[in-house]
Recover the amino acids of this structure.
């Protein structure tokens, strides 16, 4: 994966978070889960978290919203199996 591709995915994730778009986040996770290696996804997530660390999404910090949504998705997938 190139630096340009990393940056594009980081910016997409940041955009999703600032819009608090749960449906789009789910799609982003599914697509990246199929095509992006764990190491690269971790880099994307960490960079997005760094960019969003001082941003707020309404009443909640964007990073908190992202982590809460990721945990909810994990719990949902785990409970279905």
């Amino acid at each position: 994966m190139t630096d340009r591709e990393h940056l594009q995915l980081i910016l997409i994730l940041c955009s999703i978070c600032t819009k608090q778009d749960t449906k789009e986040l789910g799609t982003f996770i599914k697509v990246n889960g199929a095509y992006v290696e764990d190491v690269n996804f971790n880099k994307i997530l960490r960079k997005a978290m760094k960019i969003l660390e001082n941003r707020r999404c309404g009443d909640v910090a964007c990073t908190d919203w992202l982590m809460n949504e990721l945990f909810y998705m994990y719990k949902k997938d785990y409970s279905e199996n």
